[in-house]
Specification:
single chain, 455 residues, mainly alpha, Growth Hormone, Chain: A, 2 domains
C-alpha cells in the first residue's frame, strides 16, 4: 500500500536536504580558504586538498555507493553515511592541524558518495513512475544545484564570524534529517538478486589512482604520477575481468556518453579550478579593495543568479540548436568569463571589471552544464541510466579535484602577486576551450523528445 502523500513529501524534503548538503560542502570551503590558511599557517597546496580531497573521494566512490545501497539496504545506507558525514563535519570544526582537516574532508567525500545514490534510489522507489516521480527528481536536481551556489554565499557569511562555522554548519541540518528520516523513509527489503557482491577493488584502484594523480600535480612528483598511471591501468584490467564491474567497459561504446564525460571533466577543471583561484585572488590580491569573506560571498551572488536563469532557458536552446552546439557555445562563453579575469589587476573595479566576468561566466555555465548532463544519459537504454548519471557526476567531481590541484600548483610556481593568478586563469580558460572543442566535435547535434523528457 502506498504511503500518504504527506509522508512522501516529507521523505522527499529530507532526501533533498541530504543532497543539498553534499553539493554545498564542495563549495562551502571556497571563501573560507584564505581565513583557514592565515589562522593555521597552511600552504596553498594544503588548502587545495581541502577541496580536492572531498571532490575526488566523492567522485571515486560514487558508483560503488549505488551498489552498496542495493547490497546493504538503501534506507540503512542513507542513514549510516549521513551520520558519518555529520560526525566528520563536527570533528573538522574542532581540529587545527592541516592534514587532519584534509582527512575529515576525504571522509566527508566518501560519505557523500554513499549518501547520494541511496537518496536517489529511495526517491525512485518511493514515487511511482510518471509525473510524480519526474517532479520529485526535478526537486532533487534543484536541491543539488542550489546547494552548490548556496555554499559559496554561506561560506562568506559564516567565515565573517569564524571559519570553523563552515565545518559546523552542516551538522545540525544532518542531525535533523537523521532524527526525522526513520519516521518518513520507506522500509524496503533489499532484493536477494542484488546481494551478489560489489566491485570494491575497482573503486579502491580508481580512487587511489586519482588521489595520487592530484597529489602528483600538486607536489610535482613523478613517482606519485607513475603510481597513479599504474593504478588507473589496473582499474581498467580489473573492470575487464570482473563479473559485476563497477563500470562495465561496454558502455564506452556510446559516443555521446564518452564525449559528454570528457567535456564534463574539462568543464569541471575549468569552472571549479577557476572559482578556487578567483576566491583566493579576491581576498589576497584585492585586499586594497576590502574583499573580505563577506564581500566575496556577496560578490559571487550575481554569478549564481546568472547560472539559475540561464539553466532554465537551456532546454529551449537545446531543442533549437542541439546538444553539441549548446554545450560548445556555453563553454565558449564560460571561457570568455574566465579570461575576462585577466583584466583584473591589484585594484580592479567590481562594477567595470569583475561583475561582467562573473555574469558572462555564469551564463556560459548555465548553458553548458545541462547540455552535458543530457548528453551523458541520452545515449544509453533505460536500464543503464543510473550508471550514466553516476559516470557524469564522477567525471565532474574528479575534474574538480584535478582542476583545483593543477591551478594551485600553477599559482605557486607562477611567481608572487598577480603573475601566478593570471597563469591559473589562462589555463582554466584553456580547459573550457578544450571542453568546447570536444563537445562540438563529439556530441550529436539533435536530441530526441525521449531524451529531453528523461533528462
Amino acid at each position: 500500500m502506498d504511503k500518504p502523500d504527506s509522508r512522501k513529501r516529507v521523505a522527499l524534503v529530507l532526501l533533498c536536504a541530504a543532497v543539498f548538503l553534499d553539493s554545498m560542502d564542495l563549495s562551502l570551503m571556497g571563501v573560507a580558504l584564505p581565513a583557514i590558511g592565515r589562522d593555521l599557517s597552511l600552504s596553498g597546496g594544503m588548502l587545495q586538498w581541502l577541496v580536492s580531497g572531498y571532490a575526488v573521494a566523492y567522485g571515486g566512490f560514487l558508483l560503488l555507493g549505488g551498489r552498496m545501497a542495493d547490497l546493504f539496504g538503501r534506507r540503512r545506507m542513507f542513514l549510516l553515511s549521513l551520520a558519518v558525514f555529520a560526525a566528520a563535519s563536527l570533528v573538522g570544526g574542532l581540529l587545527s592541524d592541516g592534514w587532519a582537516l584534509v582527512v575529515t574532508r576525504v571522509v566527508k567525500g566518501l560519505a557523500a558518495a554513499l549518501t547520494a545514490p541511496a537518496a536517489l534510489s529511495l526517491i525512485t522507489t518511493t514515487f511511482t513512475e510518471g509525473a510524480r516521480r519526474n517532479r520529485a527528481l526535478g526537486v532533487y536536481a534543484l536541491a543539488g544545484a542550489t546547494g552548490y551556489s548556496g555554499g559559496l554565499i554561506a561560506s562568506g557569511l559564516l567565515t565573517e564570524v569564524s571559519w570553523r562555522l563552515v565545518f559546523f554548519f552542516p551538522v545540525p541540518i544532518a542531525l535533523l534529517v537523521l532524527v526525522l528520516a526513520p519516521l518518513a523513509l520507506p522500509r524496503v527489503e533489499r532484493s536477494h538478486s542484488t546481494a551478489r557482491g560489489f566491485d570494491g577493488a575497482g573503486a579502491v584502484t580508481i580512487t587511489a589512482g586519482v588521489l595520487l594523480l592530484v597529489y602528483a600535480l600538486t607536489e610535482t612528483t613523478w613517482p606519485a604520477g607513475a603510481a597513479a598511471v599504474l593504478l588507473l591501468v589496473a582499474f581498467v584490467l580489473i573492470e575487464r575481468r570482473q563479473q559485476l564491474p563497477l563500470v562495465p567497459l561496454r558502455v564506452f561504446s556510446s559516443r555521446s556518453l564518452v564525449t559528454a564525460n570528457l567535456a564534463a571533466l574539462a568543464w569541471a577543471c575549468a569552472t571549479i579550478g577557476w572559482q578556487f583561484a578567483a576566491v583566493l585572488y579576491l581576498q589576497q590580491v584585492q585586499e586594497v579593495q576590502d574583499y573580505g569573506a563577506l564581500a566575496t560571498g556577496l560578490g559571487i551572488v550575481p554569478m549564481g543568479l546568472a547560472i539559475v536563469v540561464t539553466a532554465n532557458l537551456a532546454g529551449r536552446l537545446i531543442s533549437r540548436w542541439g546538444l553539441g552546439r549548446t554545450a560548445a557555445v556555453g563553454m565558449l562563453i564560460q571561457a570568455a568569463g574566465i579570461l575576462l579575469f585577466l583584466r583584473a589587476g591589484a585594484t580592479a573595479d567590481y562594477i567595470a571589471v569583475l561583475l561582467p566576468a562573473l555574469l558572462v561566466h555564469g551564463v556560459g555555465n548555465g548553458l553548458s552544464f545541462p547540455s552535458l548532463n543530457i548528453a551523458a544519459v541520452g545515449g544509453l537504454p533505460d536500464e543503464q541510466q543510473g550508471l550514466a548519471s553516476g559516470l557524469i557526476t564522477s567525471s565532474i567531481q574528479i575534474g574538480a579535484g584535478i582542476g583545483v590541484a593543477l591551478l594551485a600548483s600553477l599559482m605557486a610556481t607562477g611567481g608572487p602577486g598577480l603573475d601566478g593568478y593570471r597563469l591559473a586563469f589562462l589555463v582554466a580558460g584553456c580547459f573550457s576551450l578544450l571542453g568546447a572543442t570536444i563537445a562540438s566535435i563529439g556530441l550529436r547535434t539533435r536530441v530526441s523528445h525521449k531524451t529531453q523528457a528523461r533528462a
